Amino acid sequence: MGRGRPRKKGGRGEGRGGKKDEYRTDLIEKSDMKNERFFAYYKAQKIVPEDEWESFLEALRTPLPTTFRVAGSRQIAQSLNETIKDVHVPQLSDVTFEDQKLPPPVQLSWYPDGLAGNSTSQKSAQKSRFEGNISRQEAVSMLPPLFLEVEPHHTVMDMCAAPGSKTAQLLEALHAQDTLTSTSIPSGLLVANDSDYKRTHLLIHQSARLPSPAFMVTNLDASNYPSIKLPAGSGSNRKEQLLFDRILCDVPCSGDGTIRKNIGIWKSWQPNDGNGLHGNIVKLDPQTDYNCAILQRAMKMLKPNGRIVYSTCSINPVENEGVIAAALESSPEFQLVDVSSSLPELKRRPGMTSWRPTADKSISTMYETYEAFVSADPQAAASTKLTAGHWPPANVDELNLDRCMRIYPHLQDSGGFFVAVLERKHVEAKPNRERKRTAENMEPSEPETKKPRLGSESDAITPDVPVQSTSGADAKSTTESGGGGGSFKEMPYTFLSPRDPTLLSCISRLRLTSEFPSSNVLVRNPEGDVVRSMYLTNDLIKQIILANDFTKIRLTAAGTKVFTKQEGGKGIEAQYRILGEGLPVVLPYTNPQSIITGDMNILKTLVLSHYPLCTSFEESFRAVLDTLELGCHIVKFPPGELDGASLSHDLLVPIWKSGVSVSLMVDKKAKNAMSLRIFGKEVPPSAREKKPKGAGAEAAPEPEAEVEAEEEAMMDDAEATTPEVVVVQAF
Ligand SMILES: C[S@@+](CC[C@H](N)C(=O)[O-])C[C@H]1O[C@@H](n2cnc3c(N)ncnc32)[C@H](O)[C@@H]1O
């Protein structure tokens, strides 16, 4: 994507108002796609063999095909993929658009289980957007999570996560055990971090697509990420650092691999775009301020047998192999992993082992070594961003840089990309003393100025008292602690007592079983008052919240929203209802007898109108509705067919029964996606607005607005500016 580092207004990754056309590759002549500096620099680097240069350039000048991924946890994605293959691909085989016959989407051969597709025409892919649960995402951007090989028990960190297309893939892997209708509660977790506060809200928005009690979002500078504490053991007041099994460093970069999409790069590219980022990412000199930079911080936070994936959408070796080499130099206990046999269909080139950085915009001078550069032009050397760390180190041959992967546009009609997989070298078991020293080496470098105070541990919860995340007097200023910057205005997290009366009434109202993890329900206020929404976390996230000052780790979101307060309207008491996004999480704890069964006719009425009157349903369903209390209920629709519409697997949705009408409690977008997928048409606009008149009508509430307007605008901007766009229409 546009790589998200701070940019001038109008740059990649920032709002560009109405100027989107400037970035459309179909609106620029190929003859204008040139930049002599770019050509000279990459030719000098011998980035591709000479006889491939022309096809490399030709690919760079060709619009990028739109690619998409079938999103959702494994079972859902596979089921959807069947529908796409059986129903929609054949339909798309005979589509014409503006008098042009459009080719149908084809699968990306290297993507596991055929869950990603490549549409040779953008317009044809737009047609395929009518599928629900489709993420439009640059093909190469799908790679890093695949090489990370996440499993549900893993602790996972996504250090530079926004807007979150890879975060979504990581969450899906963490939720590999979800079924078609219910969400599992993984024992691991995913922390999605971004230093840009606004962009962290894109991550929260993304996570609503795959609600997870094992998900949290932080807003910190990844290069200075504080250590997250965990209780050392039950009953102990000692804390230890949370280390990660998997860490993704999809770092900010110059983004020149996205030139097929971000055509402004043709005009602006110059070598310093990449030079400036090298130091941001990796320590060049232990004496400098770079010593906590992103990749090195990840190395400090990794478990002994863990794995780091480092990726950029740049093809510049200074931002890629240069960073890896410097990181390996400073942390010799790490090595590059040979992943040449993973994703065998993926065409790739080995990492580079020699390159020549330059700060000369005319690219007329390049030096083999830093020393040669300094002695030839000491003045220039003093005034550039270049340091010795930009050049290949003397021991470059020992680093196996060829194990890095370079993806070039002409290899498989994609963007340009770089991926490296790192792990700690396997060492023989050491005697105790030495082992201890190794563990100490892994400790974070951050100074602990205060003795951390342990919040209440999970096993110390007193049943009737809400338990809160630590903050307040203990909290260091977030800027001080290396946070994302600026003030931090999030509300604290307070776990409810499992005997909280509102929670208990909610559980009994929804007839949840005794297995429901009621001690893992939190609210977002310091008092622990159930004011509006309740969130569910898994045990690990709960431990983290209780053991850490939430302002120090700038915790922006945790767990998934499951219940929300619903005003009942005149004369009817407010009550809590299950959110559409929370239903799959709560479903395994729902008494099956409390679930009503519907059919395709009922589903059609509920989907295609907004406030259907109870009288508009057939007699048998009316009779069921008559027996229900006012408020929230769950309806299950088994697979079925109706006038060409079909439902391939059980669908469970929350409804709200008011005095005279029934509403489907899913937000407008999700409802529309559901309508498109099952009935092949959008919800008619009139149906979205018309409310029934008469007694009890006011009790039919509005379903939750899924995305705040501002977040929606940001997603739109992300879509326009980056190849890693997620346009999931989930339900
Ligand atoms: C390449 S983008 C990440 C794309 C993302 N992984 C995805 O797949 O959607 C880089 C992100 O890094 C963030 N960023 C930049 N500097 C950072 C830092 N020091 N710490 C954490 N995040 C940072 C930017 O705000 C941006 O969202």
Automatic annotation (TrEMBL):
Main localization, broad class: nucleus
Entries under InterPro entries matching the protein: MeTrfase_RsmB-F_NOP2_cat, MeTrfase_RsmB-F_NOP2_dom, Pre-PUA_NSUN2, PUA_NSUN2, RCMT, RCMT_NCL1, RsmB/NOL1/NOP2-like_CS, SAM-dependent_MTases_sf
Subcellular location: Nucleus
One of the Pfam families matching this protein, by short name: Pre-PUA_NSUN2
Biased segments, Basic residues type: 1-10
Compositional bias (Acidic residues): 701-719
Biased composition (Basic and acidic residues): 11-26, 430-440, 447-456
Positions annotated to bind S-adenosyl-L-methionine: 160-166, 194, 221, 250
Bias kind Polar residues: ranges: 467-480
Stretches for region Disordered: 1-26, 430-491, 685-722
GO molecular function: tRNA (cytidine-5-)-methyltransferase activity; tRNA binding
Keyword list, A-Z: Methyltransferase, Nucleus, RNA-binding, S-adenosyl-L-methionine, Transferase, tRNA processing, tRNA-binding
Any one GO CC term of the record: nucleus
Active site per UniProt: 313 (nucleophile)
Protein origin, superkingdom: Eukaryota
GO biological process per UniProt: tRNA methylation
Domain SAM-dependent MTase RsmB/NOP-type: 56-425
PANTHER family: NCL1 YEAST -RELATED NOL1/NOP2/FMU SUN DOMAIN-CONTAINING, RNA CYTOSINE-C(5)-METHYLTRANSFERASE NSUN2-RELATED
Protein family membership: Belongs to the class I-like SAM-binding methyltransferase superfamily. RsmB/NOP family.
The protein's name: S-adenosyl-L-methionine-dependent methyltransferase
Source organism: Gymnopus androsaceus JB14
